[in-house]
Amino acid sequence: MAKKVITFVRIIVIAMLIFIGILMIYTEQRDNIKKHFKDEKIRQEKEENKVHFDRLKATNKDVEAWIKVPGTGVDYPVVKTEDNNFYLTHDIDRSYSRFGSIFFDQRYYYRDIFEADNIIIYGHNMGRWNNAMFGTLMRFKEKKFCVEHNEIYLYKGNRKILYNIVSVMRITIEDDWYNFTEYSQEKTFLDMRQYVMDKSLYSFIVPEQCKEKFITLSTCDYDGNYKILIIGLEKDIKKIKMNS
Questions:
Q1: Could you give the angle at the alpha carbon of 211 between the alpha carbons of 205 and 216, nearest 5°?
Q2: 79, 94, 129, 131: most buried by Cβ count inside 10 Å?
Q3: CA angle 240–241–243, rounded 5-degree value
Q4: Where are the beta strands (DSSP E) in 111-202?
């Protein structure tokens, strides 16, 4: 009798574990689908020239810019924040989301981001089987991919800024690069350019006529202990027509 009870309990436990596993898979897939359709709707409107920053700001005053990395699927609005932790778990409409948002470092909240010498932007890596947010930046570990996809675009207001990628770094959060937002006597442009070249996963030839303005896209590596940084130098700024 005791054996039958133990067997029955084991069956119940196994059944519960299976049910919990299925529920977790379903929840993840549901969240992925919801996120996909929300992103696709925003991108579709952007392609149809319907998205205005004024309209996005009406949804959330923190919407500040738009980031695009051709060939990666990275094509998202960027929000500003007073607290780097908030948009790790909130969407651009400020609702809870495990995907979070793409966001500027909190140090830029009360200033024009284009005054910074290094613009740092964060986004989640959602894992090997999910390409949302900054997950596809993992492809830049391969030099061939980077050579073929060497541009980053940042849109803000009527400005379209082109950056050329000059370094791909794998570092920890304690790395001094995260402390760099402005040049100083100890951190000149030449110093910081050499810094990213020395720490890059592979060698780069810095394009001619680049300006002394960096952009840094930061996400977690798969192990969670290291960060992958895609670093670009400003190449060109163009004025674009904005809808009213």
A1: 75
A2: 79
A3: 140
A4: 118-122, 151-156, 159-171
Query: 176 pLDDT exceeds 50?
Result: yes
Lowest mean pLDDT among 11-20, 126-135, 138-147: 11-20
Are the C-beta atoms of residues 206 and 166 closer than 8 Å to each other?
A: yes
Contact 117, 191 (CB under 8 A): no
The model's pTM: 0.80
Longest dimension (CA), the chain: 83
Asked if 1 and 9 touch (Cβ cutoff 8 Å), the reply is no
Start-end of H helices in the chain: 2-47, 53-59, 143-148, 189-199
Which residues pair with residue 228 across a beta bridge? 170, 219
Q: For 94, left (φ over 0), alpha (ψ -120 to 50), or beta?
A: left
Amino acid letter, residue 169? M
Residue-averaged pLDDT of the chain: 83
Binning the chain into helix, strand and coil, the percentages to the nearest 5 are: 35, 25, 35
Residue in the block written with tokens 């205005």: 52
For 26, other C-beta atoms within 10 Å of its C-beta total 10
Reading the block at residue 64, the tokens are: 């500040």
